[in-house]
Amino acid sequence: xxxxxHQFRGPLGELLPGSLGTCAFTQVGGLxxxxxxxxxxxxxxxxxRQPAGTTxxxxxxxxxxxxxxxxxEPRFAQLSWFDGPRTADQAAxxxxxxxxxxxPAIRDIEGLGPSYVLTAADRATVIVGFAASIETIxxxxxxxxSTELLPGEDPALLxxxxxxxxxxxxxxxxxxxAAAR
Length: 181
Description:
alpha+beta
């Protein structure tokens, strides 16, 4: 599965017909928004067109590298941006940290929603994490920051995100996990 991420300002317009699912966000305390659309393959993602009446600020095409499903209603979303290009070693270190250290530290937090790890061709990554409340996002951030590096983790390969955006969820029609399709 692939995804496109579109940042926008202004009226949203129609949400990318033909996608497997879409999510629309508006930035908390900001003017911008974002749309994440899920596509069956890279060609469909690359062919995504801007809907009439919407001004995209930028668009990125990503492979959906990981999905963590939960049952909490997605009311808020945190988009964590790890800009590319990233080295193969850095990407591998981030995957290990996510799987072996971060996910175990946050998976039982009340109100945690699904998350999607999106990876671009240059290994840039966007993590789209949903939550039922801002307090859940804050609890998740505290849990992540309280973890200790695992044996063999190199802090030089784990500088953290380049930016983090906090959004209200306007719409979340999330695709079924691949195993359910």
